[in-house]
Amino acid sequence: MITLYGFGSPNVLKIVIALEEMALPWRFEMVDMFRGEQFTDDFGALTPNRKVPVIVDEQGVGGRAVTLWESGAILIYLMEKTGRFLPAGVHARLAMLQWLMWQMGGVGPMFGQLAHFRLYATDPDHAYARARYATEVKRLYDVAERRLGETPFLGGEDYGLADMAAWPWFHRWESRGVDITALPAVRRWIEAIAARPAVQRAKAFFDPLAPADIDREMRDNGEGVDRYVQRGRWSRPEL
Fold this sequence. Notes:
Layout: E1 2-6, H1 10-21, E2 26-30, H2 41-44, E3 54-61, E4 64-69, H3 71-82, H4 90-119, H5 127-148, H6 161-170, H7 184-194, H8 197-206, H9 214-220, H10 222-229
Helix pairs in contact: 1-3, 1-6, 1-8, 4-5, 4-6, 5-7, 9-10
């Protein structure tokens, strides 16, 4: 049994998708980051970074349990554990890995920063930051459009880890302010993955995890949200 520690974030959804796609037995432990549960000693014992997702695989490797954090590392571990979605041949594997790293190093951080300045730092003083990240997000959609105009999936001919990692960030284009009509290859890819039964099961589980009303959460739990996004007295402007 694999235990997934998570919250309502795209990085967690990618692991739920992988677990469902690979037909692995799993259970979920909620880490409510708006209420500071990532700062408990128990969770800190699992990851020094104090962020989700984290998995604990009791079967593990060589008879030893495995605790693993960072979503890209978790995806690669699950692929190697099951032999599922493992590209045939070194060139196909490298292509998949480079697009997985593109998501990890570019898409996740940039999309996340755009969300931060649209949801949590909405005052006019942050207009430049919103514009800067909106421009970069649009550029990343354009990169995906060029790639998906050449191949069915990000990693190449076959659906794989890069798609599982990127789709949770790309499929909600409305919230990114992106005109999907100008991106037919991306739209085709989003819809093809959304139709997969494992992805539908993953979304049905995941969607209720996200806060239903961010404005109400910020009003009713302002201190917790401030700590989560590291603003106000939780920021460190001297750094």
